[in-house]
Amino acid sequence: MIVGILTDWFRRSNKSERLWLLAKIEFKLRYYENKLGLLWALIKPLMDIAIYYVVFQVIMKQNIPAFASYLFIGLILWNFFIESTGGTIQILHSKKYLYEYSNMNKLEIYVSTLLSNSIGFFFNFVMFLLFFNFLEKGDAHTTIQTIWILPLFINIYILSLAISLILSNIYIIAKDITQVWTVFTSFLFFLSPIFYKLDTFKESLPNFDYLNPLAGIIINARKVTMEGTHPDPKLFVFDFAYAIIFLMIGLFLLNKLGSKAAEKL
Amino acid sequence: MTKALAIQAKGISKTFHISEDSHNTVKHRLFNLFNPPRSKKVEAIKTMDFDVYKGECVGLLGRNGCGKSTLIRLLAGVFPSDTGQINIYGNTLLMNLGVGMSHQLTARENIYVSASVLGLKIKEIDSIFDQIVEFAELREFIDTKIKYFSSGMVARLGFSIAVNAGADIMFLDEIFAVGDMKFQEKAVKVFESSWIEGKTVILVSHTMEVIRKYCSRTAFMKNGSLVFFGDTEEAIQMYVEDNH
Q: What SS3 class is residue A78?
C-alpha cells in the first residue's frame, strides 16, 4: 500500500513538486517569521544542552565523555520527534484550506510538514558534526559509520509520521488528545536516554530500550556518530518494526477518521 | 458510443449528527459530566444514484437548505458519503467564493499552493502566473500576506486562481457573486469564453438565465432528495413552482 502510494506520487510528478513546495513554505513560516530566523533552530538545542550540562555533568557529576555532544545528538532527535508529533496534532485543522476545496490526498500534508522539519534537523545535524569534531574536547571523531544516520533518520521520520497521523486523527473526535500527549511526552522524555548514562539507564530499566523506539534510535545514533561503530542490529530492526506498525495504524485512522475532517473540524 | 464517466454516484446518502450543547456554564458542565449533550440527526442527502459524464455542464437547483452544498461536497470528495459509493475520475475543484487559501501566506505563495493542489506543475504555474495576477487586479499586492486583503480582494484572487488553473471536474457554487460589479462582468465574460470547454462542470445557481444558457442537464433537489435529473427546462419549471 505504502509502495503504491509512493510510486503514484513520483509517477505523477506534480505530487513530488507539490510536496517540496509545501515543505518550503512551511519551513519559511516556521523560521523566517521570527526575528531570529533559522538561528532559533540552533539556539533551542544549545540552550537545552547548557541546562542539562549544568545539571547532569556539573552538579550530578555523571562523568560521561563528550557529554555536550552526547546531549546534542539526543536532543536534536528528540526535538524532531516532538515537533513532528505534538506540533502537528492540529494539522488537519490548520491546513484545512488545502483539502476543503479539492480531493487532495491528506497524507501529502503530513509528509510535507515533516519534510520541512527534516530541513531543520539536518541543519542541526551539521552543527552537531562541527561541534563534535572541532569544539568538544575528546579523542573521538566522525567516521564513515556516521552514514548510518540516514537509515536511522528514515526510521524516526516514519515513526513521527505514524504518531502524527494517529494523534491528529484522534484530535478530530477528541480534542483532549493535545493535553494527554503533552503529559505522555514529558513522561517519555524522562524514559529516553537523553541525558542519562547509558549503563545507568539499562541497569535501572532493563530491556526498556526495546520497548521505547525512541530510546533505541537515540542509542544507535550515538553509536554511529560518536562511537564510530555500526548500529545495534537487533535494536535497529525492532525500531523499524515499531515505526511500520504505528504507520499502519496511522493510515487506518486517516482513512477512517481523517475523511471526516472537513465536516468535523 | 458510450460516454466517459466523470462522476458515478451509487446509493449515496449523508446524515449529520448535530449536538445541541445546552451545558453553557462550568457548573452545568460539571454536574452533567455523565449526561452528554443531546444530538440531533439531520438527513442532508437522502439515498440517490446518478452519473455525470465528462465534458458536460450540469445544473443544480433547489431552495436554500435543500442539500445542494452538501451534495457537491460529497461529489468533490471533500465529505465522505455515509452509504453507497462515489467514483471520481479526475481532480476536483470546489469553488464558491474562490478556492481555499491560507491567510498566513502572500498572494504569490497562495497562487503557487492552490494551483499546485489543483494539479498544475510549477512550470505551468509560472506560465499562467501573470494572467492570474492581472485578472485579480492585484499586481501591487502580490507579495503581501492576504490577511491584510479586503474580503473582495481575497475573493478576486481565489476566483482568478480557479479560472486560470481549473481542474478536471469543477463545482461552481454561486460564483457570480464575487467582487464588485466590474469584476462580476469580467467573471461572466470568462464563463462565456472557452473556460469551461472540455471540462466537467456542476453549476449551482439561483439565476435561471445562467442555468438555461450553459447546462445541458439539470438536477432539482428538495429536502435532501433528488427529485428530478434531466432536461434543464423541466427542472427550472419544477424549481419555479417550488418557490411559489
A: helix
